[in-house]
Design brief:
With 362 residues, this protein is of the alpha/beta class. The chain has one domain: Aldolase class I (TIM Barrel, Alpha-Beta Barrel), CATH 3.20.20.70. Helices cover 37% and strands 14% of the residues. The protein has an 8-stranded parallel beta sheet with strand order 4-13-12-11-10-7-6-5. Helix 12 links the parallel strand 12 and strand 13. The longest helix has 21 residues. The protein is globular, with a radius of gyration of 19 Å. Bound molecules: flavin mononucleotide (FMN). The site of flavin mononucleotide (FMN) has 26 residues, from helix 3 and helix 13.
């Protein structure tokens, strides 16, 4: 159904709001590129109420079912969960806050970073990744880069953006280490791996751009950590179990993420965040992505234990409009974050307070 929906519209002209509601498999199809993210298996059309720890109130389902909705759509559940979290105000003794982020020895103006993307469309003059990197640099924000060639990484690093390079879980660890060394040689801020791309979700290992992937053990991850002077980050953590394995492997940070809905019925990253923060907060950096479309969403992540957040699809289509348009929205999001911080008495992002956030059932 999503594909039909997409074919009726111009892929290029899609609004960021509508894009944020689409799963990554649907976006990749529309872009004519299904290799980075494999198809989600077809699911029954009848919406099913998910079971488990997170209660989805039944009244949410009928009114949100749309032609683009799939049962088990983790992106939809993630949005529901964001919207179920509400904030109390704390005006007295509050003031204008700082949104500065200290990360791996450097200072940035915002904890709102770009999510690790790849294959994104750019302008007539520049590649999408170069535009996105320049926008991040313009905002003094951390730029994350997904899969791509050595030349693409060299291109984004040359923009001056402080870059975190995420490497795919290639079958051969020697290829992973070669790419780690390449990123290190270019002076990247950090390096990491999206471990949630090892399987193809049809019972086998994934193939990305013709290259075979393989799942990684704790000891594989430890070997990547030991292969570099850079901080090593694992992206695609959605459980305390994996977070603890990352801690055992000595990683510097994790990205709590379901990679835009790769796992049907994946819990919202914010559900995992609260549990993971209790287990590992302060022992490694905690980043969150998936479904963040405003500074208020970013605030909720930070309040519940994230050190910084990544924004992907919400910004992705602005990239085609150029550096200024992308940077403008990134700055707006940071202003939205600062606005909520001042109204809730939070003066800096290292002083966030989870008791501001109330869990409600809409
Ligand atoms: C076009 C596209 C390409 C992506 N490529 C990568 C990638 O190469 N590596 C990676 O770790 N994540 C990749 N992602 C996943 C994003 O980093 C992020 O986890 C996901 O989009 C959820 O965030 P969002 O809801 O803000 O988009 C990609 C996402 C999109 C939309």
């Amino acid at each position: 159904m999503k594909d039909n929906l997409l074919s009726r519209r111009s892929f290029v002209k899609m609004s960021t709001a509508s894009v944020a509601a689409l799963s990554i498999p649907a976006i990749m199809n529309a872009a004519g590129n299904s290799s980075e993210v494999p198809q989600t298996p077809q699911t029954p059309q009848t919406p099913q109420r998910p079971q488990g720890q997170m209660p989805i109130p039944p009244q949410w389902l009928p009114k949100t079912v749309s032609p683009g909705w799939d049962a088990g759509d983790a992106d939809s559940f993630t949005r529901y969960y964001f919207d179920s979290l509400m904030l109390e105000s704390r005006y007295i003794d509050s003031d204008i806050p700082s949104t500065k982020l200290n990360l791996f020895g450097e200072t940035f103006d915002t904890p709102i970073m770009t999510a690790a993307l790849s294959h994104i469309r750019g302008t007539a003059d520049e590649s999408g990744l170069a535009v996105f990197a320049k926008a991040a640099k313009e905002c003094n924000a951390v730029f994350w880069m997904g899969t791509g060639s050595d030349a693409e990484l060299e291109e984004v690093v040359a923009t001056g953006a402080r870059t975190v390079k995420i490497i795919k879980p290639f079958e051969e660890n020697s290829e992973v280490i070669r790419r780690i060394k390449h990123a290190e040689g270019l002076g990247c801020l950090a390096v990491g791996m999206d471990i949630d791309h090892s399987f193809n979700m049809r019972g086998g290992y994934d193939i990305v751009m013709g290259q075979r992937m393989k799942s990684k053990s704790t000891s594989d991850i430890k070997s990547f950590v030991n292969a570099t002077k850079l901080p090593f980050i694992v992206k695609g953590v959605l459980s305390v179990a994996d977070a603890k394995r990352c801690l055992d492997a000595g990683v510097s940070g994790i990205v709590i993420s379901h990679h835009g809905g790769r796992l049907p019925y994946a819990i919202p990253p914010l559900v995992a965040l609260e549990q993971i923060a209790q287990a590992v907060k302060g022992k490694m950096k905690i980043f969150v992505d998936c479904g963040i479309v405003s500074g208020v969403d970013a605030y909720k992540c930070l309040a519940l234990g994230a050190d910084a957040v990544g924004v992907g699809r919400h910004l992705m289509f602005l990239v085609q409009e150029g550096v200024d348009a992308t940077a403008k929205r990134m700055k707006e999001m940071n202003s939205e974050l600062a606005g909520v911080m001042s109204a809730t008495g939070i003066m800096s992002i290292d002083k966030m307070d989870p008791t501001v956030v109330h869990h409600t059932i809409l």
